[in-house]
Design a protein that fits this description.
Elements lengths: L5 E4 L1 H14 L4 E5 L1 H6 L2 H7 L5 E4 L2 H9 L6 E3 L6 H9 L2 E5 L2 H9 L6 E7 L10 H12 L4 E8 L11 H13 L6 E4 L1 H6 L7 E2 L25 E13 L4 E2 L5 E2 L4 E6 L16 E4 L2 E6 L7 E4 L11 E5 L5 H8 L3 H6 L7 E3 L2
Parallel strand pairs: 1-18, 2-3, 2-9, 3-4, 4-5, 5-6, 6-7, 7-8, 8-9
Antiparallel strand pairs: 1-10, 10-13, 10-17, 11-12, 13-16, 14-15, 14-17, 15-16
The structure holds pyridoxal-5'-phosphate.
Length: 358
């Protein structure tokens, strides 16, 4: 027996969301974002389920090598490129594509002993101001690297800082700057993340780079209106492990932060912050018990939470609890925690087994 707390991963929903990407971007190649273990869903299982994707992206080389070791032969891009020259040589050996982010990385690539030339994505800083070449150096680096023996092909990319806000003019400005600077270059282009795929159609070029929408999460702040037929992939579940009656005035849990205003009944659920259910979630956060919304009460502890079961006399030990996923949007829980769904999904701990449907 194992603790009945699982992250159920619905690979049909993942494939459905991939098909939604296809509908938004029918003429583009699709590079699926499988970094951070596919946003907490399991990169191996996700890459097997997304066999129709044209390429995979991860953050750094260890994530890519784990996929190669498991037999994944698709093109894999390292979004952060490499940290030293040795990694370039490893990337050659395993045929990994690099994002080249700045002059130091470009020089490392030129100096490396490559067994085979590499495909690279040359990143343009169109306004994120974090990584990428600036407007005055981009074209010369493109020309320089295109002619280098270690380089098989140079592709062009940029990343949006505000595409999740449909009213923010910055996205159109970034797009215009990218077009202005790269207009003369003949090479495949990639601009769009999930928010741009769904909200900024003019940014769809040769390749799109969906992440969060694959996992069924709206990239938009107003996700209630803008869910656009995405299906939750992860449903985080546990069970009621104990119930008890409380008298008015009795406090629950550490710090006694929640006090019963009247006689009530509470349940204890086997999930806590060590599993990745955030400690900062306040009393009142919704939890589904046997499909019904009930409020979290008191503090989230390492392994347990408590919920108010007043008026639900039929609930007993072993009954199912959903923390987020099908029936309870992870976006809503993220809002309560003052964060974004990306953080909740990627923070689910290794001690929570993932259960996959086929
Ligand atoms: C360069 C790049 N492209 C695309 C994505 C995917 O973004 P999203 O998950 O918002 O679709 C990311 C994610 O952070 C990224 O770093």
């Amino acid at each position: 027996m194992t603790r009945p707390t699982f992250a159920h991963i619905n690979l049909d929903a993942l494939r459905h969301n991939f098909n939604r990407v296809r509908q938004f971007a029918p003429d583009q190649k699709i590079m699926v974002m499988l970094k951070a273990d596919a946003y907490g869903h399991g990169a191996l299982q996700a890459s097997a389920a997304l066999s129709e994707a044209d390429a995979i992206a991860v953050a750094f080389i260890d994530e890519a090598l784990a996929l190669r070791e498991a037999g994944i032969t698709k093109p894999i891009t390292l979004l952060q490129g490499v940290f030293d020259q040795q990694e370039i040589e490893l990337a050659c050996e395993h045929q990994l594509d690099l994002v080249i982010l700045h002059a130091e990385q470009a020089k490392m690539l030129e100096a490396a002993q490559c067994s085979k030339p590499l495909r690279i994505w040359l990143k343009f800083d169109s306004g994120m101001h974090r990584l990428g070449f600036s407007a005055d150096e981009y074209v010369s680096w493109f020309q320089h690297l295109s002619a280098h023996q270690n380089v098989a092909e140079v592709r062009l990319m940029t990343h949006f800082s505000c595409a999740d806000d449909p009213d923010n003019p910055v996205t159109a400005e970034q797009e215009a700057l990218f077009d202005d600077i790269t207009g003369v270059l003949e090479a495949p282009r990639s601009l769009a993340n999930s928010a741009a795929i769904m909200g900024w159609p003019s940014t769809l070029r040769d390749w799109v780079r969906p992440g969060i929408m694959l996992y069924g999460v709206s990239p938009f702040a107003d996700w209630r209106e803008d869910h656009r037929d995405l299906r939750a992939v992860m449903t985080l579940k546990s069970v009621i492990i104990s119930t008890r009656a409380l008298k008015a005035g009795e406090a629950v849990g550490y710090g006694g932060s929640w006090v019963a205003e009247q006689d009530c009944r509470i349940g204890v659920v086997s999930i806590g912050y060590a599993d990745g259910y955030p400690r900062c979630l306040p009393s009142g956060t919704p939890v589904l018990v046997k499909g019904q919304r009930v409020p979290l009460i008191g503090r989230v502890t390492m392994d347990m939470i408590t919920v108010d079961l007043s008026g639900m006399d039929d609930i007993t030990v072993g009954d199912e609890v959903v923390l987020w996923g099908e029936g309870l949007a992870v976006e809503e829980i993220a809002e309560r925690a003052g964060t974004i769904a990306y953080e909740l999904l990627t923070n689910i701990s290794k001690r929570v087994p993932r259960l996959y449907n086929k």
